[in-house]
Amino acid sequence: xxxxxxxxxxxxxxxxxxxxxxxxxxxxxxxxxxxxxxxxxxxxxxxxxxxxxxxxxxxxxxxxxxxxxxxxxxxxxxxxxxxxxxxxxxxxxxxxxxxxxxxxxxxxxxxxxxxxxxxxxxxxxxxxxxxxxxxxxxxxxxxxxxxxxxxxxxxxxxxxxxxxxxxxxxxxxxxxxxxxxxxxxxxxxxxxxxxxxxxxxxxxxxxxxxxxxxxxxxxxxxxxxxxxxxxxxxxxxxxxxxxxxxxxxxxxxxxxxxxxxxxxxx
Length: 266
Hints:
elongated, Uracil-DNA Glycosylase, subunit E, Uracil-DNA_glycosylase-like_sf
């Protein structure tokens, strides 16, 4: 029994030593460079001490790797060409221009409404996942909620409209900051053409893109989105899902809506 244990121990040591030999580490650590896998093993590491083992074939050095600059896709640039100066032409441009970010995205294209001087415009980041037209930019429960929000300001469904920064839902439902900034520039131009009485911006990302820092409780003035038609007073609120599920957020938002009520009825 003891002989078997001794044999197992010797086999383990031998296997361990052979592994180090195959790796090329067959001597004490030295500061100088050493030939990995190409140098002849030390005699006492060989299976048969003193036997002359064949030299392993020399491995030619791999060509040096060169690092080439990685080509990144250019970020969407700011809209350089002048955008059309009337609302129908602007919406036709959005629908047909191949340089728009949404031109290569799938799904139905939902343009901002062809309406001028509506009382109130709700602005969201992108259409609902199952949106098919302007009436379904938001999910049914979300639309019902924003209509109730408009009713609290004394408005009905005919007094309001809903528009999204993106006319299609982006791949992965995510907009990078550069694209978001470009879409916000486009929406600002739309506001100058449509000239709504006021705007409610839903979600922090959308409000940061359009006006920067969102409205906070305690502020006694509303931010304004400056555009070619002058400016549009805006309220920046959390997204509809957050407002529907957090009563505290809804209560804070009511303070901002009261200011907007004064603007719409001033």
